[in-house]
Structure formats: structure tokens, C-alpha cells
Amino acid sequence: MKENLKVTHYRNGEDLNRFNESLPTAPNINQNWSNLEVGTFYNYNSSYGHLYNGHAVKDERGICPVGWNVPSDEDVIILEIYLGMDEEVTNYRNVYRGTNQGSKLANNDYLWNDGVLESDSEFGTTGFNVIPSGYIQSDGILLSSNNRGTFWTNTTYIEDSGIEKMFERIISSDNKGIYRESSNLNWAFSVRCMQDVVNGCIDPDACNYNSEANIDDGTCEYNSGTLYVSLEGDDDNCGSQEQPFASIQYAIDSSIDGEEVLVSAGTYYENINFNGKNIA
Questions:
Q1: What are the pLDDT digits (tens) for 187-216?
Q2: Are 150 and 102 in contact (CB under 8 A)?
């Protein structure tokens, strides 16, 4: 997904809790935000998308559209490695990692404070379009708009103290790398959704094309100049050996001159019309 999420309801249609109070800047705090234990979003700039607390991300009802989910920490690591980050540093925490992967993910330089992030020659080259939407601390203080873009993963863990935390990523105007950190669930960050992986044949010309697939798994099947018919077939098939037609006439109608139609043994009750085609 190329922009920050800005939904106001869960996937099942139930409303997310909306925080309508104005949030302060330091040193003031908002105790009502601190006490939240339900999925909540805050909208202070609609062009930036909404900020969601960790309770919203963790909720099993889901905040991403059908077919999409909040990426895991491992999903983001795979992206970081793809963009050139050394695999040895990907699991480092509480530090900026990599070379210029943050610059590659960011975009819209006019939104960012001046800094090394936007000065990199590969700034904005991925189309991921991270923008400096800021974040909300656990005490309800809104921070770092125009300076920092932060987004959740869905990966949580329990500290020895019993506090549950969730991993996020931070991109800042003063660094070209990507910061990996974890925060309590009453912090709020942007959310990016990742399309679910559906393996299958993605070639529309193949017999077994899967319109829902987005990863080609190498299983595409094609006709090879021969159409097959079987009593166990179906005329909604493509006529391959693995997916034969059910009727001879349908195979003829689907064929072109010079193709071969192979009919499995059996009794077929049809009136055959070759339609002037040269079919073996």
C-alpha cells in the first residue's frame, strides 16, 4: 500500500474508537489517551492518514481491507534486505540500521524538514512514499510531524515485566537509515497494509489462470495444439490434458484449423458439426 491507512472501522464494519480531544505538545500530557485500552485512531491531518494505537493493530477484527494485513516485523526485514540492507544488521534494535533504505522508502520532500534523508540521490525511488506523519506517545503527546514517519508492524512480544510491546519502524529527516524499535500498545503510529500472498498462475492466457493470485508459483498450464475431451471433463475447463472439455462439439468450436482433438473412450450423445474446420 502506497499511502498511510485512514480507515475508521474494522474489517467487519464495526467502528474504531475515535479520539476527539486535542492532543498537547510537551510538556503537557493527556491522561485520557494514556488510559485507553481499546483500538483507537487519531486524525490531526487527513493528508497524512490516521495514527492508530497498538490495540487497533492487534485487534483480530483487522483494520486493513480484505486481502490485506499489517506486515510482520519479518515482512519488513525482507523488504529492507531487498532494498540493500545488510542482513546482519536487520535484527538490531534501538538503532538506525542500513545505509540509505530510509531515504528510498520516504517521499514528498516538501513535507520533510531539511536533512540528510531527502538529500540522498535515491530519495523516493521505491514508491513506498513514507511521509513525516509523526506519532503519539503513551502520555498523549503528539510529536515529530514534519520530522519523523513511523509505522507499526503486527509483531508483539511480552517483556519480563509483563508489558506487551509491538515492533515499529522509524524514518527521520536527520538519518538515511531505518530505526527498529518496539513500543507499548498505547503509543500511536501510522499503518501500512501489505497485500496477502496468494500463490497461483498469474498468466491470463494460461488454462489455470487465477485472478486472485499475485505470486506466480510456476504451475501455469497451456494448450499445446491439442484439445482433450473426457466424460469427466467440464466445458468450463481450458481443454488441456489436465483440464479436458466435456463435449466434443465444444472442443471443435474452441479449436482452430490444424489443431487436434483427442476424445477419451466413452459414449457421447452429440450432433457433431465440424464447421468447416480442418481438425484431426
A1: 999 999 998 888 899 888 788 888 888 888
A2: no
Which one, of 85, 87, 86, 77, lies nearest residue 104 by Cα?
A: 85
* pTM metric for this prediction: 0.78
Contacts of 36-43 spanning 24+ positions with Cβ under 8 A: 36/186, 37/186, 39/10, 39/63, 40/16, 40/188, 41/8, 41/16, 41/17, 41/188, 42/18, 42/136, 42/142, 42/188, 43/6, 43/18
Compute the distance between CA of residue 76 and CA of residue 55 in angstroms, rounded to an integer.
20
Pairing verdict, β 68-69 and 194-195: antiparallel
Residue 163: all three cell numbers together: 508489558
Residue 19 φ/ψ, nearest 5 degrees: -90, 115
- Mapped onto helix, strand or coil, the DSSP state of residue 49 is coil
Could you give the CA distance from residue 37 to residue 258 in angstroms, rounded to a whole number?
A: 70
